[in-house]
Design goal:
246 residues; alpha+beta; three-stranded antiparallel beta sheet; 4 helices; 10 strands; globular
Length: 246
């Protein structure tokens, strides 16, 4: 007969148990519940959906490896052309078209879209400069009467617990060569159509977000287990008594 006895072993105080708190993810995924918040539309129910995607990318080793492999596949050998000057410097930072292509390819897979600031020449006859804008920094303005987004608000402070101040938010109208004269700096945003989404896209891996979360939670569980001595503060002791097999 096998008797199983649970013996509490917490060093000095046997009645005290110590439990490690495992940080949990909240579901920030974008839904049809996009709401206006002042001048802009929230990106996710709590306006922090891009931060959520970044967190999953940084904390799930499997998701990160798969994402990086796919992005490398999108970039491939980079952009090539018979005209050498078309892949040279595209802005005053010294970035080439391939540098820009690498950044927008990353955003396209991670967020489902990418954004480029377009600056017109003085005579407005051509595009003088192009800059990558991190898509997580964008918040869409409310659509006009033609169901078009007129522009985007740009800030790095959306993840704070309060709204960014006016000085921390920059507005750019959407790309339109017809309005280059009055709007010399514009933003080009590319995104795929996704049913139910009015303002923001969803990444192609959106259906696997729960699985990615689970991978992160499993890693958190094992890390906390290792940090706490591989077990909570209790010991399972098997007492073998009256066992005819012994």
């Amino acid at each position: 007969m096998v008797n199983i006895q649970l013996i509490m072993d917490s060093m000095e105080n046997k009645k005290k148990l110590h439990f490690a708190k495992i940080q949990r993810f909240n579901d920030h995924r974008v839904t049809a519940k996009e709401k206006k918040d002042g001048k802009y539309i929230k990106y996710g129910e709590d306006n922090r959906f891009p931060e959520y995607l970044i967190k999953l990318y940084n904390q799930s080793s499997i998701h990160s490896a798969c994402t990086n492999a796919i992005i490398e596949g999108i970039i491939g050998g980079g952009l090539t052309t018979t005209e050498d000057d078309s892949i040279t410097v595209v802005n005053k930072k010294g970035e080439t078209l391939n540098d820009l292509y690498t950044k927008i390819s990353t955003d396209f897979y991670l967020y489902g879209s990418y954004a480029i600031e377009v600056i017109w020449s003085l005579d407005k006859s051509r595009i003088a400069e192009m800059y990558h804008i991190d898509f997580s920094h964008l918040r869409a303005a409310e659509k006009d009467h033609r169901n078009n987004i007129p522009g985007y608000y740009i800030s790095t402070e959306w993840t704070s617990f309060k709204k960014p101040s006016e000085k921390d938010v920059h507005y750019l109208p959407v790309y339109n060569p017809m309005t280059a004269e009055e709007e010399p700096s514009q933003i080009f945003v590319s995104q795929e159509y996704h049913p139910g989404q009015l303002y923001y896209p969803l990444p192609k891996y959106h259906g696997a977000l729960k699985v990615i979360e689970m991978d992160c939670e499993i890693d958190n569980f094992h890390v906390n287990n290792l940090q706490n001595g591989l077990a909570p503060s209790l010991e399972l002791q098997l007492l073998l008594t009256d066992n005819p097999m012994m």
